[in-house]
Amino acid sequence: MSVSPEERLAIRDALFDKRELIDEFVAENPAQLSAEQLRIVSTWKDALPGKFYAFRYLKNHTVFLTSNVSPAKAYGVVGLAEPMEFVIGPSLPRLVTTVLLPFHGKIIYDGLVSGYNITFGGGIKRMLNEEYKQAKEASGIITSLGAQAAALNAGGLKKRSAKKKKTSAAAASPANEAKSVAAEITELTDGFCVDFLNEEYAKLCRELASALARKRPSPLLQGKRETWACGIVRTIGWVNYLDDLAQKPHMKLPVIDRAFGVAESTGQGKSKSIRKMLKIGNFDLRWTLPSKKDDNPRAWIVQVNGMAIDARYAPKDIQEAAFKKGLIPYVPADQTRVDA
């Protein structure tokens, strides 16, 4: 018997309005489920239905922010058969209605997600960023629900207590603090690149944040995370001529400032400071997008008998010698032959 999406939603809502039905189902077991399956069903009493902001895609889960709880809480939700990005779509944040469920120590959703066609402006995005930051500081990203969360926390309590004295001194070191700050900044740059740019930009922004964290003393220990994130994105955009209409993606650099809630003069100044600290110049190969290195003239300039030449137009033997020394990305003559 097929059940329409509307009927499925109505049944789901009715179930979680009367959660005692779950106990009755487990006791009677009309579907002849195994003991392990019944145990899983019994944990659904700890389900969390409601409206959430699907806020950010991270490596291990998708961050869901509560929309009607103050202070907000952040939940790390994993997909079922498909990653959450396939279910919700690439553009975040997005307001959705679903039910979060405990499952083997993780949080999943019940397979039913309804979204709202709402576009969020910079003000709302800044508010959500602030709520996310506060939620992480208060309780971190919650990755388990109800009884399973209590069990996991109890199991890890002694280990954390035993390690606390050993790790407290290391955790307080400037190097570790810089790494922690860089991780927070990276979350901001990752979110921006997912929304507006691409993974190539995200990767270079992560590498730039790490480079700043490794400096001694690290400049990341001073200033706001949003300002550093803005300056990092601006710097990578500056190297790759992001504001050039011919580029894809394309964006005017002041748009980056507004997205992070930073004044244009502040974002511009932070980018200049980063470029000065790390000696970043025009066409800097270290910070050029991989897809644009072929078009970067600095990738092809080599010295031959004291003269600078463009290896793309040199004889093949010179190209091969330059390639063996790691001076150019590949042998252009071979690439041309393959393309032909």
Give the tags.
340 residues; alpha+beta; two-stranded antiparallel sheet; disordered C terminus
Low-confidence region ranges: 151-162, 165-170, 336-340
Overall geometry: elongated
Please count the beta strands (DSSP E, at least 2 residues each): 9
Structural class: alpha+beta
SSE succession: HHHEEEHEEEHEHHHHHHEEHH
Helix content: 40-55%
Number of DSSP helical runs: 13
Biggest sheet overview: 7 strands, mixed
Radius of gyration: 26 Å
User: What's the end-to-end separation, in Å?
Assistant: 57 Å
Average pLDDT taken over every residue? 82
In what range is the share of β-strand residues?
A: 5-15%
The number of distinct structural domains comes to 4
